[in-house]
UniProtKB/TrEMBL annotation:
UniProt xrefs under CDD domains: ABC_RecN
Record's keyword terms, sorted: ATP-binding, Coiled coil, DNA damage, DNA repair, Nucleotide-binding
InterPro entries linked: DNA_recomb/repair_RecN, P-loop_NTPase, RecF/RecN/SMC_N
Keyword Cytoplasm: no
Top-level taxon of origin: Bacteria
Protein name: DNA repair protein RecN
Amino acid sequence: MLSSLHIKNYALIEEVNLQFNEGFTVITGETGAGKSILLGALGLILGKRADISSIGNPDEKCVIEAHFNVSAYALRTLFEEEDLDYEPQTIVRREILSTGKSRAFVNDTPVTLSQLSALGARLVDIHSQHQTLEVTDVDFQFQVLDAFAENESILTNYQELYQEFRSKQNQLKKKRSQKEEAQKEEEYKSFLLEELLAANLKAGEQETIEASYDALNNVEQITEGLSESYQILSREEVGVNEMLLTAKVRLAKLSSFSPQLKELSDRLEAVTIELDDVSESINDLAADTESDPTELARLESRLKLFFDLQKKHQVASVEKLIEIRDTLDAEVQSLSNLDTEINKLEREITHAKIELEKQAAALTKRRSKTIKPLTEKLQQILSNLGMPNARFEVSLTDNITFLENGKNQLHFLFTANKGMRAQELKKAASGGELSRIMLAIKSVLSDYAKLPTLIFDEIDTGVSGEVALKMGHIMKDMGTRMQLISITHLPQIAGQGANHLKVYKEDLAKKTTTGIRVLSIDERVAELAEMLGGKASSDAAFDHARQLLN
């Protein structure tokens, strides 16, 4: 419920603070007084785009703030989905800066226009003249039928099943596509995998083989070098070992003369031992090094295999080849799993289809039973609104496939005159008739659904007299179940409101401004009398005004 509305620096409104009550509220005022300005300000609260031209004083920002009591609207889930803090008394604020920048807040949390629109659609329903055509929309007609049939629970269950059903269908379609693509590549991938598996690759193997290959491929040079090195070290009298031994003996004789000489003698002793060991190792290695053409050929063949595979897969190491092998192995393995996954999804879809059929059949049954009482009630209301020959013909047929709201096609036909063939609403009803049909439908909906604050913007266009009075009675009755606000030019409707606001213009300091105020009982009488008889209202007009209020 809209509790209050604060508007500052918006169009011709300098600043107003409005309090709204439960029930039926009417808003009146002369043409051009600014009733559309009020709706424009409220539209900004509901997420409409801002226009810098709507700022009254360009040196100040425009602020619109509305307070809503949302405790009865079951909106906690929506707040969570939009990542907003839920408060039973929710405050929505919109600011438009002189730069044209717009900001929006819900309970002091900045929000996007998308978030604001999602929330606004659940808080206020502004019904203007052009929106009367909504009644001709099939989705809206389904909403009316389901609300009257009290299908909310079963429809929610169906839609949850439908979303799951569609999700599984999409998964199955994707899996089948994957299988189709996989089948095209399966043979080639399997060949590549077998080739890599046959290679029996091991991490680090290439470096080891390359070292062994280099050694075998240069065995003569290595043997010759080792022999020469051993001769240089071990040759008698002139070899390095002999000469080092001579130096070691002479230095050992001097080691007792000083600590430094002792240290040098010890170091030379260590070098001599190490060099002897190196000499023996060279000799042993030279003895063990021999040519092996068979092993050399094997290593060369192994390396060629590595290089060929690396070139084929465009990588530079055995480790990368191993990664490719493991990936191919997983892919080939997943191909064999696809059939299992597809079969599982097909079973789940079959089961979901059975459940959907049950829910859809239940919806169809409840809708079919509802058509007659719904059309009879609408026809009765329209008869009271000056359309005694109004007749609805509603057909509900089965659709081949599942839809978001069931498995039905709905045809809502209408005629306002006897002997005329019923046609689609948009063809059969005039603008004034559509307004009355919409009022009748909203009246029915208010009995069966928790509607947001409903604002009628001159829904009474095209009616007058007794019909207008009956429209007012219907709105007054709706006000006992919801908050209803009607902008009207008809005194017959204005007299039915529990609350009455007047929009007016006045000139202050060479500037025209729009104001809005709550009317007292006496002011309401004067306003209704003026609506009935003009500025110079007669006593009869005042008497009639009092009768309308009573």
